[in-house]
Amino acid sequence: MIFSFKRNHKRLVVFLSVLLFSGCAVYAGLNYDQLYGKPSPQQRIAPSESKMALNYLTEVKPIIEQRCVVCHACYDAPCQLKMSSAEGIDRGANKEKVYEGTRLLASNLTRMFVDAQTTEEWRELGFNPVLNEREQSPEANTQAGVMARLLQLKQAHPLPDQKVLDADKWDFSLDRDQQCPTIEEMAQYENNYPEWGMPYGLPQLADGENNVLMQWLEAGSPMASVAPPSEATLAKVAQWEAFLNGDSLKQQLTSRYIYEHLFVSHLYFDDEKEPVYFDLVRSRTAPGQPVDLIATRRPFDDPKVDRVYYRFVQVRETIVDKTHMPYALNPAKMARIKSLFIEPDYNVDSLPSYDPESSANPLMSFTQLPVQARYKFMLDNAQNTIMGFIKGPVCRGQLALNVINDRFWVFFVDPDMADLPSVNEFYASQAHNLRMPAEEESNTIPLTNWLRYAKQQGDFLRAKNDFMKQTFKNGEHLTPRVIWNGNNENDHAALTVFRHFDSATVTKGLVGAEPKTAWVLDYSLLERVHYLLVAGFDVYGNFGHQLVTRMYMDFLRMEGESNFLSLLPAEVRHDELADWYQDSNKSLKTFLQGDINEFDQPSGIQFKTDNPKHELFTLLQQHVAPVRSDRYDIDAAELGTEAIAALTTLGRLSGEHVHLFPELSFIMVEPTNPATKAQLFTLVRNSAHRNISSLFDEESNRLFERDNVTLVRGLLGSYPGAFWHVKEADLPKLLEKVQQVKSEQTYAELLDAFGVRRTSAEFWSFSDKLNQINQENFPIESGLLDYNRIENR
């Protein structure tokens, strides 16, 4: 007791002395060192069978997931603090932003579980702890830990009693200045921003939840990693690893192709009740040995080893919607891959090199694999293929996503119609014109490259048009027959893409009313989109790399659009194109007039009305009807006819006032029937544009009078902007309120009646219920939502 008193007295003297020098980080650092010793990473992962691990998994982790991971789970997590795994929490925070569009040079990589494997390695890369790394005592763990201090700050200073937080004090913009205080800076942070405890700009944790977390922090924050897979699951992993690591050149090239297309997917075995997710990685070690990860910027970068092995690594992070791309594996899938790539009679004489010019261009590096096999592999899970660039390697993609319209349909050329011996020869002849921006790696000069790529794309399209004319006479291919219908069994045949400003969603089926535009993708286009925006895109790249990537996507989008326009009568194609690209700049107009499809082949469709675009959409809808899904249909909701009618009317909202609504509004309807669980819906705002060719100042291209919405059953998107909570009987009143929204004031009145604002005392209970229902409805596809875009209105 005497020793304890002396030690605490000494700490008090040191602390009071240091207060005289408040504002000096050096003295603050000395204070913590003298009070609690020098910092050093701690061993926090408890044995999986221990009581501490069980407490973390059952009591602590659920709170962290529901209250912290919803804002801290991806590249755009504030301060790079990823709390979706024990290892991420221990890694801590970094003041550098991943999303920095003005950097001249590519930044260092900080991918979780990839670019460093231990907390010590993360410290060397500039990450600061949010847990106490000094003396492990209850006092030190709560006073010298950033997370503990931020939780205490919020409990001491809850949100002010306001519906809408003061915009002068609170900044919720994605590009806001981030404080990211270290423990040495916490006193100054607490003084400057007393209301900025965690969760930032959301209600404080309930007392019980806060107590659980504080007790856990006091005890030294013991954690547990994910439980290892079962023996049965490991046996399936072994089967797949044995297959993917066969010794033949044909197998090695096939496995490289599969890896470069699935490296962002979460692989799972679909016969398991509670699936375990895996990442497919490159390793220096063969199956049966511990994985020795090959960490490169891109999946096709030189691994610098004689032999690459493809291995399964268990996903250790909480599943969140914005990065979750589930990909099912089973015996039928393996048999399908074998039938496409292994069993056909062809030779692979040598493996392609990894030099950037070659490896960045899949049409060249995989030329020895049959074109039809590659195309069918991507089409078998086309939603996953397209989702790669919608979710893919990033979590915020304005620069890449402002190159697409807010909603459009996607169709694919039938692979059987493209099964021509001369196709591969044609691609080989176009090697120069098919070069991709990723060959420049992550530091690029944009202007000169854009001019070069524009010329190459124009040359390729002219050559492609000539090839198509020689292969198909009199437009015989320009009918719905050219469109893949999933062989009447694959529901990936038609997709809908929704853009939500800097994020997007891809769904199966043709969702919503007829869109402004549509894409028709063939093999070469689909492959190039993947290697431009997924395999070849570097979120850590310099501004030039990101700018050229965006501009190159202009070409690919227009190619897909022009493929769709070729199905229309020749005399309306240019008029339709002109409407899509109103007021576009001179260089783009020149490209549109001279380098996209020449539109001189007649459509093979005999149109019967003066609205051929509507006719075409109707024909295509009929063509893919056998694989249509009702997942998003409002009529399938478990609600009465009056409620369905009100929701249907809500989904027809259009006009200039639509811009007042968020990109995504998630709606929970409590049914009148108490035996029916709450029904979820999403109101998606579709913003109209004169054109989408402008890199900057998107607002100047807006056509507000053409804005509309799409209302779907279920949750669509990862980033809600608003929550609405309504009883079924009150849906007509909700509709009336929505129709009255003409200003910020009337929108606020809508939220007063039916909104669950970020300041609401019911926010967390509503959030828990929403996520629970979503998980119950779609246990494989769903993940935790992200709250970084919830509006303050």
Name some characteristics of this structure.
single chain; 793 residues; alpha/beta; four-stranded mixed sheet; disordered N terminus
What can be said about this structure in brief?
The protein has 793 residues and is α/β, with parallel strands linked by helices. Helices cover 40% and strands 9% of the residues.
Plain-language structure description:
- With 793 residues, the chain is α/β, with parallel strands linked by helices.
- Among the domains are: 1-37; 39-218, no CATH class; 228-351, no CATH class; 634-777, 2-Layer Sandwich (Nonspecific Lipid-transfer Protein, Chain A).
- Helices cover 40% and strands 9% of the residues.
- It has helices at 2-19, 25-36, 51-69, 86-91, 119-124, 138-143, 146-156, 186-192, 207-218, 231-244, 249-262, 331-342, 356-359, 362-365, 371-380, 382-390, 398-401, 421-429, 446-471, 523-533, 543-565, 570-580, 586-594, 612-623, 641-650, 731-739, 744-754, 763-777; strands spanning 266-269, 278-283, 309-314, 326-329, 407-412, 495-500, 503-508, 517-521, 664-670, 679-686, 708-713, 722-727.
- The chain has a 4-stranded mixed beta sheet. The protein has a 4-stranded mixed beta sheet with strand order 11-10-9-12. A two-stranded parallel sheet has the order 1-4.
- A hairpin with an 8-residue loop joins strand 9 and strand 10 (679-686).
- The longest helix has 26 residues, at 446-471.
- The two termini are 55 Å apart.
